[in-house]
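Support case: heme C complex. Customer-provided input:
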Amino acid sequence: MCRFPDRLFGLFLLMLLPALSCAETFAQIGRKATIAEVAAWDIDVRPDFLGLPVGSGSVAQGQKLWEAKCASCHGAFGESPEVFPPLVGGITPADIARGRAAGLNAATENARTTIMKLATVSTLWDYIRRAMPFDAPKSLSTNDVYAATAYLLHLGDIVSAEFILSNENIAATQQRMPNRNGMTGAHGMHDVAGKPDVISSACMKDCKVNEQTLLVLPATVNGRNGNLAEQNRTYGSVRGIDTSRR
Ligand code: HEC
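Agent response - structure generated as follows:
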């Protein structure tokens, strides 16, 4: 059992003398993670590309891989809304030039695709490596991840069909990401000293429900947001029921 005097003195000891902590008492339980175990978990790739492993993959290889392991869910061209909003679509050469996807602000553009939203190419690489394919995460080799990323970048008109993406040229592709200037730091979560950007007061009893919230409660759900069947599906086949009427 791990017991400390529950007085201030105990706290004082705990702070000053880590050697007296529970670790000693629990010596028989667990063990330190090995370097290899830590390395297996430590796979994040940062926007400055720290953590990116050496490797490469071409658009052509990516297309093959895509057809075998990704297209069933995301569509042959990353356009399918079947399991997730489309990965690709909705950007223009002007977006690539200025680094801001105009469609994100356009009322006419209902689908926010991955390639429109994404500010950092490292996130795409990192996400594919850790999470895709959805049914077998972390099964891709490093070069497969480069290839899949290259194919998606090609579908987004960021690189040519002949492009071979590698650890050496990935930073250059960052300079063509359509929403590279779309990341904002003007909120509390960007800075450890930051404050949240919501204004609220704590309430535990007889709390007032905001009128906006009442408006979206179940009885009035249908039709409140227009016809979902006509929204959010600008790319690929249109699915969904007509929710504009009861
Ligand atoms: C079995 C279906 C399935 C397969 C196969 C699959 N995906 Fe996905 N993919 C998903 C789902 C579901 C999500 C959303 C996951 C979530 O948000 O938790 C997703 C999300 C993504 C995203 C992130 C989109 C975003 O904006 O956050 C990328 C990129 C992606 N997939 C790439 C790939 C690649 C590359 C492959 C092939 C190697 C692949 N996927 C195979 C189902 C699949």
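Residues 69-70, 72-74, 83-84, 87, 114, 124, 127-128, 132-135, 140, 148 surround heme C (CB under 6 Å).

Case will auto-close in a few days if no follow-up is received.
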